[in-house]
Amino acid sequence: MLTLEGLVCGYGPFVAVHGLDLVVPPAGVVALVGANGAGKSSTIMAVAGHVQVLEGTIRLDGEDITRLPARERLRRGIALSPEGRKLFPDLTVAENLEIGGYIHPRARVARSRERVLSLFPRLGERLDQQAGSLSGGEQQMVAIGRALMAEPRLLMIDEVSLGLMPKVIDQIYAAIVGLRADGIAVLLVEQSTRRALAIADEVCVLESGRPVWRGTAAEARGNQTLIDAYLGLREEAPS
Amino acid sequence: MFLVELFVQGLIQGSVYALIAVGLTLVYGLLRILHVAHAGLFTLGGYAGVLVTNATGSVAVALVFAALSVGAVGMAVYRFCYEPILRRPPYVALIASIGLFIAMEELFRIVFGPFGLTYDIVPLQGSVVIGGMYLRSAELVTMALAAVLIGGLGLLAGRTRIGLAWRATVSVPEMAESFGIDIVKVRYLNFFIGSALAGVAGVMVSVLNNLVEPTMGSVASYKALAIIVLGGLGNVRGTLVAALTLGVIEAYGTIYLAGFLDRDAIAFAVLIVILMVRPQGLFGRSA
Ligand SMILES: Nc1ncnc2c1ncn2[C@@H]1O[C@H](COP(=O)(O)OP(=O)(O)OP(=O)(O)O)[C@@H](O)[C@H]1O
Ligand SMILES: [Mg+2]
């Protein structure tokens, strides 16, 4: 579905990712992990069309989308729940979702809204509340729900569990598993390695903008050196 | 009774301020630009009012013409003055805007002469008695237009798809754009509506004073700035309240402060006092 070939991206003269190859298969879940500043968000934002690609290509089902503007990528089926969530804080939950489906006709929007609300029933009780006044977990649900309103084939989620309570994280991961069952591919950035390894089909470890390890989650779980070197340190804060 | 009359006079003046200031706060909310030249568009509306009314005999035609033409000029101001410098620091746009405002005033002077224009037959001069109070038709129309137009704007923003797109763009422009909203279209709409409201205000002020002159926008420009700061920059509801409040305070102030404070200084006295107590403005969110 999504293929990155030698992706180099950055900000003006600063290069954040130096040559990344990555494949996200249809209905597959791929996790990007790595320390702060490793280039995870930059990768995702380059795929979404928000960070400048300096070299390499991004393909979606074989089509080269490297130079397409962000909204064309959305039309082709790539939706994003970005770092920091970037909700419209003074708009209501319902309005945030509506913007997510802005490219689609009204009837379709109503249907995908039903689907999002069945995925996150909590949001159904909060439709008229301003998104900025929601709890962190609810905001994450709105961010993911808003992206789903675009009916993507590839959903990218940055910072899935950051700052959330384990119970809320469970709900969100349950939703992601459901999405995969529906045939949606997911590329996620996860600070909690344990969570990433538990759900992902494949894991890609970045360090200073370079991939240092790639493989299935099962391989990663069995690789003690890898866990000690890159994956051991970042666990959920107990709550 | 006298107090009530002053209050109503304040609301009339406040309606004019509101029509002008809403466009200014909309531009600020969307682009973070202090659109000083907005007051030049207000003056342009005044000229359109006098010229079209004198030519056609109908102030209604003049109002529609002023709204559409000033709205269109507003879009041109965005396209040719602001769009090329959007990525520059905000003071660049501010300087461009002040320059444009001065250029517009000079242009009015060159084209229409320095002494101002008056109506051949001043429209809306009837009066009505409401609750024992004499109100000129022009004053009633001013308040009614402000209420209807700004109310309509509220419905547009709150109830329609383009209104939602507009609010989303004001809220987080990059995200709005990435979800497929045409933010350039939103900007044109924003400038059209804000400028059309200023154009209508210009017509009504020219009718109320039976005069339009090149410098008509000077006082309006700084008062509107004070109002949008009080209203919490970019906050339309706050701007409305601030506009009406200022109108009322001025109305009382002209009588009770006449000895030591000029009417046009009241706006700034209020601004200074309120900003000392609430630096984020009356309705701004505290940072
Ligand atoms: N807007 C920007 N301008 C310049 N440099 C940036 C910008 N955003 C990120 N960077 C740099 O790019 C590098 C990669 O950052 P990125 O945000 O992709 O890391 P990350 O893996 O997502 O980290 P984190 O876990 O902290 O979110 C960092 O060195 C960062 O300083
Ligand atoms: Mg990041």
Shape verdict of chain B: globular
H and E order of chain B: HHHHEEHHHHHHH
Which sequence of SSEs, written as H and E, runs from N to C of chain A? EEEHEEHEHHHHEHEHEEHH
Strands of chain B, count: 2
Structural class by SSE content of chain A: alpha/beta
Short summary:
The complex is a heterodimer of chains A (239) and B (287). Chain A has 239 residues and is of the alpha/beta class. Chain A has helices spanning 40-48, 70-75, 93-100, 106-119, 121-124, 136-148, 166-181, 193-199, 217-222, 224-231, and strands at residues 2-11, 14-24, 29-34, 52-60, 63-64, 78-81, 154-157, 185-189, 202-207, 210-216.
Can you describe what's shown?
The complex is a heterodimer of chains A (239) and B (287). Chain A is 38% helix and 27% strand. Chain A is α/β, with parallel strands linked by helices and 239 residues long. Chain A folds into two domains: 1-77 and 153-239, Rossmann fold, CATH 3.40.50.300; 87-151, no CATH class. In chain A, a hairpin with a 2-residue loop joins strand 9 and strand 10 (210-216). In chain A, helix 3 packs parallel to helix 6. The radius of gyration of chain A is 17 Å and the shape is globular. Chain A starts with a strand and ends in an 8-residue tail after the last helix. By secondary structure, chain B is an all-alpha fold. Helices cover 75% and strands 3% of the residues of chain B. Chain B is built from eleven helices and two strands, in the order ααααββααααααα. In chain B, a hairpin with a 2-residue loop joins strand 1 (127-130) and strand 2. In chain B, helix 1 (2-31) packs antiparallel against helix 8, helix 2 packs across helix 8 and helix 9 (216-230) crosses helix 10. The radius of gyration of chain B is 19 Å and the shape is globular. The interface between A and B is medium-sized, with 23 and 14 residues. The structure holds adenosine-5'-triphosphate (ATP) and magnesium ion.
